[in-house]
Write a structure and sequence with these properties.
The chain has about 350 residues and is of the alpha+beta class. It contains six helices and 17 strands. The protein folds into two domains: about 150 residues, Aminotransferase class 4, branched-chain amino acid transferase, N-terminal domain (D-amino Acid Aminotransferase, Chain A, domain 1), CATH 3.30.470; about 160 residues, D-amino Acid Aminotransferase, subunit A, domain 2 (D-amino Acid Aminotransferase, Chain A, domain 2), CATH 3.20.10.10. Strand 12, helix 5 and strand 13 form a beta-alpha-beta unit. Helix 2 crosses helix 3. The protein binds pyridoxal-5'-phosphate (PLP) and 2-OXO-4-methylpentanoic acid. Pyridoxal-5'-phosphate binds next to helix 5.
Length: about 350
Amino acid sequence: MSKNIDWSNLGFGYIKTENRFVSNYKDGAWDEGAITTDDMVVISECAGVLQYAQTCFEGLKAYRTEDGKVVCFRPDLNASRMVDSCERLEMPTFPEDKFVEAVEKVVQANLDYVPPYGSGATLYIRPYMFGSNPVIGVKPADEYQFRIFVTPVGPYFKGGAKPITIRVSDFDRAAPHGSGHIKAGLNYAMSLHAIVDAHNKGYAENLYLDPATRTKVEETGGANFIFITKDGKLVTPKSDSILPSITRRSLMYVAEHYLGMEVEHREVYLDELKDFAECGLCGTAAVISPVGKIDDHGTEICFPSGMEEMGPVTKKLYDTLTGIQMGRIEAPEGWIKVIAE
Ligand code: PLP
Ligand code: COI
């Protein structure tokens, strides 16, 4: 029985659900972990996460398919990306098989919150980990908590599939040889001033440039870029300081193997953006959000696909990806994890 929620009008916000998963790391080992109804976290005032931001997270979604199953999309890739984040932040890794099991358990424990098929909403799953014991000298914590909560969500950007306007940011998101390639909370803290400033000026997001030369396109605060060339190729930026988006990696595969498109994963220069036909932001939260216009310090880059709707190639990618996620199109082997029949 689904909860009485107005699924079709949900934004991207937090709604407390009944159950979450919690596991604690102490004396060098993770405990078994368990589902709990307690949504409160009580930790020391001097916890590593509070003093030195020792925390990382993941994001994935559960979907209700056309035939009524509940599935999630490539959770093994989130598990392995979280291992990369933990290693870079000197945190203990959470075993990848246990991560996927925990995702399954927490979705099963909140099935009533999985939005109905066709409602436009999905269940966002947020795994995260933080240093929980007191740390005052700059060093990693000894104790950690791993948690997963879920929350039903609608579109990340207001207006859903309407193209957005973004701007080239003067702030950098990540340093060269820094932490841009992992999902560390600190990267998002760094982006808060830039996003508030962008919103105040009427932009939906920031386009961050490569911090070393400021000539190449990296990503936005919460999504990777895809571009479509006038002759129908998919081009997506390659850089050591952007987050390896699971959505982007999936779209590269879908473009090549489902749609027969050529795919280029390469450095993308700011001054070539004007030549692309379509532009989109891709990620778990963003899905594919079309970009109609990029403001580069007063010079507007307007994509031919316009401000009214998604470009035609972006739309094909969107329909194929969401078709796979919602069970309308057969998925590549191993992409879909069935959680409830
Ligand atoms: N880039 C950033 C900075 C993100 O926060 C996200 C969101 O997870 C993405 C890209 C998209 O990654 P994914 O497709 O794995 O959700
Ligand atoms: C996600 O897409 O899962 C993210 O973590 C992006 C965040 C900006 C909500």
